[in-house]
Specification:
The protein is α+β, with helices and mostly antiparallel strands and 139 residues long. The protein has one domain: Nuclear Transport Factor 2, Chain: A, CATH 3.10.450. It is 24% helix and 45% strand. It has three helices and six strands; from the N terminus they run H-H-E-E-H-E-E-E-E. The protein has a six-stranded mixed beta sheet with strand order 2-1-6-5-4-3. The longest helix is centred in the first third of the chain and has 15 residues. It starts with 12 loop residues before the first helix and ends in a 9-residue tail after the last strand. The mean pLDDT is 96.
Length: 139
């Protein structure tokens, strides 16, 4: 039997908010092994122009992401929910090895299985270079 990851669908506003907060908290650890536990073994992702499938590809992607996106800090906001789907808007900040800060904006569409694991994640993301004094997300 597959592991459960409450809250389970169908989502209410309260449970959708809990799911969004749990995702934000996990991603802010920058620990790919922890983050991947929220996804099905065969989870499908579209992240910008990349298409990933399964835990191995997700961990590889997240490891590389957080090696180049230093000081990463994320905020997610519930946008909509219904049944087993949640939509979020998000922003995160990070800097590169040269010290240039960026703010990334985007939207994600999530679909969950009956056990509360995310089986699909589709993300559209844009980056904006920002000066250190323009940062909005405290580390």
């Amino acid at each position: 039997m597959a592991a459960e990851r409450p809250p389970l669908p169908p989502f209410t506003e309260e449970t959708a908010l809990l799911k969004v907060r749990a995702a934000e908290d996990a991603w802010n650890t920058r620990d790919p092994a922890r983050v991947v536990l929220a996804y099905t073994e065969d989870s499908e992702w579209r992240n910008r122009d990349l298409f990933l499938r399964g835990h191995e590809e997700i961990v590889e992607f997240l490891t590389a992401k957080w090696e180049r996106e230093l000081g990463y800090r994320l905020r997610k906001e519930l946008w909509a929910y219904t049944g087993n789907r949640i939509a979020v808007r998000f922003e995160y900040e990070y800097h590169d090895t040269a010290g240039q800060w960026f703010r990334a904006y985007g939207n994600e569409n999530w679909e969950f299985d009956a056990n509360g694991l995310m089986r699909r994640r589709y993300a559209s993301i844009n980056d904006l270079a920002v000066a250190p004094e323009e940062r909005r997300i405290a580390v």
